[in-house]
Design goal:
Elements (H helix, E strand, L loop, with lengths): L6 E2 L3 E10 L2 E8 L6 E7 L6 H19 L9 E7 L2 E7 L4 E2 H7 L7 H19 L5 E2 L8 E3 L5 E3 L6 E2 L30 H17 L15 H4 L5 H10 L11 H8 L21 H18 L62 E4 L2 E4 L4 H10 L11 H4 L22 E4 L2 E4 L5 H9 L33 H10 L7 H9 L62 E9 L2 E5 L15 E4 L8 E2 L3 E3 L3
Parallel strand pairs: 16-19
Antiparallel strand pairs: 1-2, 2-3, 3-4, 4-6, 5-6, 7-9, 8-11, 9-10, 12-15, 13-14, 15-20, 16-17, 17-18
Helix pairs in contact: 3-4, 3-7, 4-6, 8-11
Amino acid sequence: MLTPGVLLQNRYRILRQIGGGGMGIVYLAQDTRLAGRRCAIKEMSPAQLAPQDRTWATNAFRQEAQMLANLKHPGLASVTDFFPEGGNWYLVMDFVEGETLEKRLEKAPGRRLPLGEALNVIRQLCDVLEYLHRQNPPVVFRDLKPGNVMLTPQGEVKLIDFGIARFFKPGQARDTINLGTPGYAAPELFGGLGQSDPRSDVYSLGALLLHMVTGYDPTTAALPFPLPAPASLMPGLPPHVERAISRATQLQPTSRYQSVVELRRALFPPTSVLPPPPDARRKSTGVWLGLAAAGLLLVTVCIAVLAGVLPLLRSCGANETSAPPRADTPTPRPTATPSPLPPPTATSSPSPSPTAPVAPSAVLPSSNSVFVPAGNFTCGSTWADVEAVLSDLCPRYTDSWCRESSFEDELVRQEVRNPQPDVSYMDSREIYLDGFYIERYEVTNANYAMCVEAGACAPPERTGSNPRHSYFADRRYANCPVVYVTWEDARTYCAWVDARLPTAAEWEKAARGTDGRWWPWGNWAPTNEANFRHPGQSAATEEDTVLVGGDLAPVGSYPADSSPYGAMDMAGNAMEWVDAWYGPGKHEIRGGSWNTGSFALRAAGRTGREPGALYFDVGFRCARDANP
């Protein structure tokens, strides 16, 4: 065991021990080469193990380092160094502030969490496990338990301790070594019952959810299998949650959900319609009569369940408004710290499987919302960011406007070299935002059709030569973002569902989190992460009479285009109206689209459009206050 003050590699100064487990001790350390940076250092000491275990443990520790070094996801701590010293092995990782889920449960009344909070943890764990399972070969975590789940002050969930994670090996009959925590680990991890695979993590997710919502600790049972029925522990659980836990924890892998995607879909079923206010009048307009008739039945059921929990909304504390700011209350438009652009990294390919998240609260404003916690936020860009865009992204495209002046609207006012009279620049980089909810998906044609059917919204513009004018009335595009709507149309729809447009700062925080990343998924340029125009692909124009280039996709079709809070498609698919004034005669647009290059997909990017104009690549999503 190391004592405070010990210096490893003439670089890492040990501060204190912060954890320990079956695979080693974890220390908090100071990186003396990078002032202010704290890191977590995991120590594995072979001398403390039985002789027959030393070779295996050393190999497992090396595998953990190699595995984590190649994994990049917001739900994982990044590995930055790995070395031997003094007969021990050390793994250096980002320090994750917060507490373990185990500690959170110990402090919770009845050792259980509110349903909304528990489901938010599971939703984020599903996201990171889906990423692991999509690796080639799949990475199976195998030891999912409260002590290996970190909860940050920002509401983020991170997996820690990959000591027994393994690569799935097709054709192998069973695991070479039986490991895992009894109660949470699947039966196939014990006694040679088979090889662990992604379905083993599905079992652990079910056991973990059972613990969080009922207070039942499966490690205290005399026998780890089978787990008790959820209803016997906590009567009154929502039926779909009870069913999901029961199926996820089946003893036979073939009887479980076959992937975390299936489990997530069962817990957060996709919704094609946001419920309107209970007193909304429904006047038939002849638009999508067949679809609307079926949708009204669904909405009637949804209203009965959700009407009591949909919060009333008001504008948030941000200074961005839909009208020009007063001289004494300038609209803040902050920026981020410098972050050089890393080389592109290939990730998973798109898969049209949208899922809906849940807010981390016992009161859920919508099953289709994600929660963004309150806190300080640095948004926008610095000159280092702009220069990296110009050197690394713009040369991949022939767009004439991919030049310095096009990105100066992301800078703080005093840093702008060539200010334009028609642009409202930010006066501060750092702002504080109250907590809020934002819809996980862009508003779809199916969503918007219900508002039109109720007589509250005007139909999208449907005349013109571009084929996308027909999408709203074509059921094949029901789950694609609605476009050809004005800024006022977007505001009207959001008001109809007791919501509002997000401010520009809210939208950016929901898209990138608080770590200054460029894109929702991280700091690597997109390949297949989002729906966007790739280098060399033709750009479409409104005047096209046939489809040119890319096109709109159903919401949620690109799982990697997921923000740290779970909001989908904030980089690509459709640009989005926000409640912010961009400059004289213009309102602000955020995000990129199927028709923009990677440089326009960055969360800090902004542009302005005429609020009364109609565009084939501009849609919107709604937001709600957390404390109306």
